């Protein structure tokens, strides 16, 4: 019969070895409580779209993006030029400033009811966005292509 170490010695040696291992291993891990040096977090800037709507053509113009939004089939698209009409003809037609700041597609059904094709504000002569005045509701000049697309 083989005689080995008593069972309590085996358990004691295991506990001692395990304790030593736990005491040594944390020394191998480097702990960082904060980054060295300064950390710069850039501010987030959110710019809202502002739109001018041209009811005769169901086209929206984004002054911030310098893009036109309109339906192309079932989808809404943003393009550098309106479809089916020149910029000069578009800006000479009646327009109205929109108060929403997200996609025109989210508001078009209501906007089209409120401003149907051939809509014109009462007493529109000489008002911004009307024939004879190349400025929109924001006072932006639209009779040259530099301000409206290419």
**In which range does the helix fraction lie?**
10-25%
Ends apart, CA distance between termini: 99 Å
Structure summary, number of beta strands: 5
**Outline type:** rod-shaped
Structural class: alpha+beta
| Poorly predicted residue ranges | 126-135, 141-147
Largest pleated sheet? 5 strands, antiparallel
**Beta-strand share of residues:** 5-15%
Mean pLDDT over all positions: 75
Largest sheet strand order = 4-3-2-1-5
Radius of gyration: 35 Å
Order of helices and strands: HEEEEHEH
* Tally of individual helices: 3
Structural key phrases:
alpha+beta, 150 residues
How is this structure best described in words?
The chain is an alpha+beta fold. It has a domain at 48-150. The chain has 3 helices and 5 strands. It has a 5-stranded antiparallel beta sheet, with no helix packed on it. The longest helix is centred in the N-terminal third of the chain and has 18 residues, at 7-24. It is rod-shaped.
Give a topology summary:
Blueprint: H1 7-24, E1 51-54, E2 59-62, E3 67-72, E4 75-79, H2 87-92, E5 96-97, H3 108-114
Antiparallel strand pairs: 1-2, 1-5, 2-3, 3-4
Quick synopsis:
The chain has three helices and five strands, in the order αββββαβα.
């Amino acid at each position: 019969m083989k005689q080995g170490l008593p069972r309590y010695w085996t358990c004691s040696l295991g506990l001692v070895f395990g304790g030593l291992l736990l005491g040594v291993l944390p020394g191998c891990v480097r702990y960082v409580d904060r980054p060295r040096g300064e950390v710069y977090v850039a501010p987030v800037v959110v710019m809202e779209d502002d739109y001018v709507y041209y009811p005769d053509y169901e086209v929206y113009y984004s002054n911030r993006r310098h893009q036109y939004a309109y339906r192309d089939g079932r989808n809404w698209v943003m393009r550098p030029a309106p479809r089916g009409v020149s910029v000069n003809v578009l800006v000479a037609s009646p327009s109205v400033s929109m108060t929403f700041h997200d996609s025109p597609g989210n508001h078009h059904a209501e906007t089209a009811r409120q401003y149907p094709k051939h809509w014109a504000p009462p007493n529109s002569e000489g008002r911004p966005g009307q024939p004879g005045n190349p400025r929109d509701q924001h006072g932006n000049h639209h009779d040259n292509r530099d301000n409206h697309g290419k």
